[in-house]
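RECORD TYPE: inverse folding
INPUT: structure tokens
STRUCTURE:
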């Protein structure tokens, strides 16, 4: 099989099964990682060789972001140590060429139209059972009418058929509502360096989103996603619906919008379990939207309650399945997804692509760290051995009980003590999954505990005390994974987590990488039980951060 030669000593080995091996110690490894990140997904990241896979979805995201097949092929050839299989290069070009052969367009006479630049492709999808009932009158060999209500469903069906449509049908403008960004030098400078003026990457993110019309902006936690959302709102100057993960996050969005934009408190409504306010800018929780009563979702009407000009999905990787169904009906409105990672543990990334939109902007964590926008972070995995009795209990336990047994070993409490003692005077978070384990740790440390049972008011009080330095250590359950702004935290100790959740790992590191005024490093520790499923799951969780260039040092608890 003919192949295209690369340099004699490149850091990549590109294989015909679409896997790409990266030699971590190679001097050009970082450059190669950055170059392949837009179109390859990390699968495994042990110490020396990282394995990436080139997937159709990653290639389509790259194509939507403006990369052409020639650029992707050039990157593979440039960094590959051995000749790149010709069959792979052909497949890359063909896969990327599938994006945009079908286009959704707005027709003055017929409304929404599916247009093909390649007629046989239209014939193929029109005859598929997946598109049954979605397509109407055939206007010409290249064009077929689409019912406006099927815009989202059709895009989902087409991506499943391997022909992702480029949606160029435009958007309704929505109801006008003036919003401008305001300077807040006094408050913002204290909040984060340079926060009151858009940073260069934030401006680029806004421009990339606006040029694309709808889609996802990927920024590290602590890099000011809320400000990007606010800038897009100012650009739109329309009524806006913002969907967030929880009530604390809703309050935080409200505070930041009042601080950074011309919006007043009276213009911003909160639609959560406790309040049902619909205003020109409305912030709703995913939870309240997905509440079911007698098989129906009573609050979904909120999506149609206003002529929204923009819908913002915060932490879009957590979008619940019912919200996807609603999003299929919102295709005529501009949609902005914000996230630190497009990884979804349920594998529904293609639905984010087709219903929210392609990835429009992605800022690698290490790039922002090198530019000083987020704090440098040291990640360490601390391994401890179970005691003999615990090992026997673990060995005889059912598989579903083993993770909890290993993750909640009481031996972790002493290790947490030792790790916190290494960082006197620093603000620290201890993060875990199991409330009984966290209660023990909080009692041992004499530190306050925040769980799902903590009231919103009490959470806000404790977060405020932590920000001001009154509270030095906070013990938190997974309620603190998302959208909580704790700029002073520089140490995090993770004792347990959701089974192998890569996005949770990213969120937890994100809690501590907000830039520090004294320039200090952030320290992220994961405490795991050696030779157990706890250690295996930790390895899976670390994949996303390895993709971003973070290396985990492994140390033995006995050596602390």
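DESIGNED SEQUENCE:
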């Amino acid at each position: 099989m003919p192949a295209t030669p690369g340099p004699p000593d490149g850091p990549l080995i590109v294989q015909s099964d679409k896997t790409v091996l990266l030699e971590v110690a190679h001097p050009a490894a970082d450059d190669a990682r950055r170059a392949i990140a837009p179109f390859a997904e990390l699968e495994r990241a042990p110490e020396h060789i990282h394995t990436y896979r080139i997937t159709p979805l990653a290639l389509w995201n790259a194509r939507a972001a403006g990369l052409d097949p020639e650029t992707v092929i050039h990157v593979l050839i440039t960094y590959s140590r051995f000749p790149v299989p010709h069959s792979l290069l052909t497949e890359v070009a063909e896969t990327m060429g599938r994006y945009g052969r079908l286009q959704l367009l707005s027709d003055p006479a017929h409304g929404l139209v599916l247009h093909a630049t390649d007629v046989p492709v239209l014939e193929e999808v029109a005859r598929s059972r997946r598109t049954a009932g979605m397509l109407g009158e055939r206007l010409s060999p290249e064009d077929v009418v689409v019912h406006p209500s099927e815009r989202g469903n059709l895009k989902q069906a087409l991506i499943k058929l391997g022909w992702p449509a480029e949606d160029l049908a435009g958007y309704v403008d929505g109801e006008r509502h003036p919003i401008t960004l305001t300077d807040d030098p006094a408050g913002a400078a204290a909040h984060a360096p340079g926060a009151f003026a858009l940073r260069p990457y934030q401006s680029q993110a806004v421009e990339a989103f606006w040029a694309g019309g709808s889609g996802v902006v990927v920024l590290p936690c602590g890099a000011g996603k809320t400000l990007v959302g606010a800038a897009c709102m100012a650009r739109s100057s329309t009524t806006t619906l913002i969907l967030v993960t929880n009530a604390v996050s809703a309050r935080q969005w409200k505070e930041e919008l009042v601080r950074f934009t011309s919006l007043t408190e009276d213009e911003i409504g909160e639609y959560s379990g406790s309040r049902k306010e619909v205003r020109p800018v409305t912030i709703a929780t995913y939870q309240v939207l997905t509440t079911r009563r007698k098989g129906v979702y009573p609050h979904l009407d909120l999506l149609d309650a206003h002529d929204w000009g923009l819908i913002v999905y915060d932490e879009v990787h957590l979008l619940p399945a019912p919200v996807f169904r609603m999003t299929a009906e919102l295709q005529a409105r501009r949609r902005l997804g914000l996230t630190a990672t497009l990884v979804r543990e349920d594998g529904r990334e293609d639905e984010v692509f087709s219903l929210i939109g392609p990835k429009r902007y992605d800022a690698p964590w290490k790039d922002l760290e090198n530019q000083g926008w987020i704090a440098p972070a040291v990640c360490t995995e601390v391994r401890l051995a179970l005691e003999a009795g615990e090992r026997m209990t673990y060995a005889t336990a059912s598989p579903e009980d083993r993770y909890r047994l290993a993750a909640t070993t009481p031996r972790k409490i002493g290790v947490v003590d030792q790790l916190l003692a290494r960082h006197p005077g620093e603000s620290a978070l201890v993060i875990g999954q199991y409330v009984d384990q966290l209660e023990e740790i909080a009692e041992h440390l004499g530190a306050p505990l925040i769980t799902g049972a903590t009231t919103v008011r009490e959470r806000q009080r404790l977060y405020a005390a932590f920000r001001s330095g009154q509270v030095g250590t906070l013990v938190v359950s997974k309620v603190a994974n998302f959208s909580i702004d704790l700029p002073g935290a520089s140490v995090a100790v993770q004792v347990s987590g959701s089974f192998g959740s890569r996005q949770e790992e990213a969120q937890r590191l994100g809690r501590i990488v907000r830039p520090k005024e004294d320039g200090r490093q952030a320290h992220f520790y994961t405490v795991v039980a050696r030779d157990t499923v706890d250690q295996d799951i930790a390895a899976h969780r670390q994949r996303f951060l390895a993709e971003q260039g973070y290396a985990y040092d492994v140390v033995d608890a006995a050596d602390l």
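NOTES: Residues 185-195 have pLDDT under 50 and may be disordered.
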